[in-house]
């Protein structure tokens, strides 16, 4: 949706539909763009954007879904033109269809995007479109052509975008430069077309079915019709015209190779997991709903959604029975093997949960979702020190993940490590850009660690960091 605010004029306008454009040698803008807004500045803007989304948007705190999405985006990016692959992938807990890209390598995806894609290829068509917004530096190019070329006003704009996003209210930013809105929307179509072209090529080079993009557009058009006057955000910023659909389908028709990857088992399980998450029924009715669905159409997705519904309903024995059936078909699948440990954990069979998750960690050492499950199991067994150790290990490579800091703080509180608890809470608030609360937590930690010189030293560094950032923010 962020692209809605982009303003660009006159440059790079290629009216050719992408079916005609086999050769994508658009002029290289790199240096000209970087002179106006550097990659470092984009990172800073992205950081500000991320903080606001973390602070205000409902997030899907599900490490299994997070891991799947991150791996998919990284894999797609390998055949994209994105140079900086230091992404921040944010999963928004909304069942409406939306995805967005923001400067500094931010890609956001609503849970609803998965629900509205029939397969991994269709999901990838939207993700590669978002990757193209990043690789083509649409944000910087908007600044280049706009009047507000300074960082401070860009920050204000990024805030407005974040607000519109998290309030799920596309008109929220209108309180700003409302007069420009329509013009911006029109200009943005140029970028959208460019993102379609680059995204389409990315999709094919990543080995996916070329028809997937056109099919995803058709799905979106259907959703738009059903929604009437109240279409989801993504359709407002990405209107699906009949020419957009036919361009994509024609482009696919002209691709010489047929076939291409359509789906993966993991996509089916992830979609099933989200189906169970978003079913708006009480647990018992949800069980009946998915039971019927599975009888009528026993796909992997429906079977797995049924298992998750059984778990949420406390029907653990039945959930396990069903899961074993799927596991005989896919014995090595990590998602299923992790789900088994989760069921044991929910059923408070901690030893079994532990054994099961160790099996996964033996096959995939350091695996992110499996490590979190392991830490949850240990924490439930009151083995807080070991649980803490596992999270610290994860934080070495993922110290920008607020959810991990929150988990760590909860475990520390349970283990009566109150200094650690305040420190982790402080880190959590830092990531949300809530510097006052971060400072407050660090000061509480300092007050409790008076007799440990080393700890005080560390905390003083944190306090200094938070104070400096607060100063910078007020200075802007
Ligand atoms: Zn777009």
TrEMBL record:
<dbReference type="Pfam" id="PF14559">
    <property type="entry name" value="TPR_19"/>
</dbReference>
<dbReference type="GO" id="GO:0016020">
    <property type="term" value="C:membrane"/>
</dbReference>
<dbReference type="InterPro" id="IPR001915">
    <property type="entry name" value="Peptidase_M48"/>
</dbReference>
<dbReference type="GO" id="GO:0004222">
    <property type="term" value="F:metalloendopeptidase activity"/>
</dbReference>
<dbReference type="InterPro" id="IPR051156">
    <property type="entry name" value="Mito/Outer_Membr_Metalloprot"/>
</dbReference>
<keyword id="KW-0479">Metal-binding</keyword>
<keyword id="KW-0378">Hydrolase</keyword>
<feature type="domain" description="Peptidase M48">
    <location>
        <begin position="70"/>
        <end position="249"/>
    </location>
</feature>
<keyword id="KW-0482">Metalloprotease</keyword>
<keyword id="KW-0862">Zinc</keyword>
<keyword id="KW-0645">Protease</keyword>
<dbReference type="Pfam" id="PF01435">
    <property type="entry name" value="Peptidase_M48"/>
</dbReference>
<keyword id="KW-0802">TPR repeat</keyword>
<protein>
    <submittedName>
        <fullName>Peptidase M48</fullName>
    </submittedName>
</protein>
<dbReference type="InterPro" id="IPR011990">
    <property type="entry name" value="TPR-like_helical_dom_sf"/>
</dbReference>
<dbReference type="InterPro" id="IPR019734">
    <property type="entry name" value="TPR_rpt"/>
</dbReference>
<feature type="repeat" description="TPR">
    <location>
        <begin position="419"/>
        <end position="452"/>
    </location>
</feature>
<dbReference type="GO" id="GO:0051603">
    <property type="term" value="P:proteolysis involved in protein catabolic process"/>
</dbReference>
<dbReference type="GO" id="GO:0046872">
    <property type="term" value="F:metal ion binding"/>
</dbReference>
């Amino acid at each position: 949706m962020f692209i809605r605010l982009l303003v660009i004029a006159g440059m790079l306008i290629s009216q050719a539909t992408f079916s005609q454009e086999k050769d994508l040698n658009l002029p290289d803008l790199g240096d000209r763009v970087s002179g106006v807004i550097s990659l470092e500045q984009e990172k800073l803007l992205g950081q500000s954007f991320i903080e606001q989304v973390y602070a205000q948007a409902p997030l899907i705190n599900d490490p299994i879904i997070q891991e799947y999405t991150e791996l998919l985006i990284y894999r797609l990016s390998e055949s994209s033109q994105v140079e900086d692959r230091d992404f921040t992938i944010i999963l928004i807990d909304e069942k409406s269809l939306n995805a967005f890209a923001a400067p500094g390598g931010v890609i956001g995806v609503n849970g609803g995007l998965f629900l509205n894609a029939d397969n991994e290829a269709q999901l990838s068509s939207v993700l590669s479109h978002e990757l193209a917004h990043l690789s083509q530096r649409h944000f910087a190019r908007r600044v280049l052509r706009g009047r507000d070329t300074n960082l401070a006003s860009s920050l204000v704009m990024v805030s407005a975008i974040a607000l519109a996003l998290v309030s799920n209210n596309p008109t929220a930013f209108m309180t700003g430069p409302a007069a420009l809105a329509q013009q911006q929307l029109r200009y943005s179509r140029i970028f959208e077309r460019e993102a379609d072209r680059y995204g389409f090529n990315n999709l094919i080079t990543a080995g996916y079915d070329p028809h997937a993009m056109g099919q995803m557009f058709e799905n979106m058009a259907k959703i738009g019709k059903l929604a009437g006057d109240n279409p989801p955000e993504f359709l407002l910023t990405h209107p699906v015209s009949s020419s957009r659909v036919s361009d994509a389908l024609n482009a696919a028709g002209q691709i010489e190779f047929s076939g291409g990857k359509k789906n993966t088992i993991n996509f089916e399980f992830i979609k099933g997991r989200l189906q169970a998450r978003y079913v708006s029924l009480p647990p018992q009715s949800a069980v009946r709903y998915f039971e019927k669905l599975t009888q009528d159409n026993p796909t992997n997705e429906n079977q797995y959604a049924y298992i998750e519904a059984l778990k949420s309903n406390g029907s653990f024995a039945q959930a396990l029975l069903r899961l074993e059936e799927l596991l005989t078909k896919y014995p090595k699948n990590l998602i299923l093997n992790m789900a088994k440990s989760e069921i044991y954990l929910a059923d408070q069979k901690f030893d079994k949960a532990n054994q099961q998750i160790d099996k996964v960690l033996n096959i995939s050492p350091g695996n992110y979702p499996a490590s979190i499950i392991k830490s949850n199991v240990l924490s439930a067994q009151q083995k807080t020190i070991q649980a803490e150790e596992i999270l610290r290990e994860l934080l070495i490579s993922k110290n920008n993940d607020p959810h991990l800091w929150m988990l760590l703080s909860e475990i520390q509180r349970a283990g009566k490590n109150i200094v650690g608890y305040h420190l982790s809470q402080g880190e959590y608030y830092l990531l949300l850009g809530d510097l006052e609360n971060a400072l407050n937590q660090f000061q509480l930690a300092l007050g409790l660690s008076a007799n440990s010189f080393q700890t005080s030293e560390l905390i003083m560094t944190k306090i200094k960091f938070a104070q400096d950032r607060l100063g910078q923010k007020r200075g802007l």
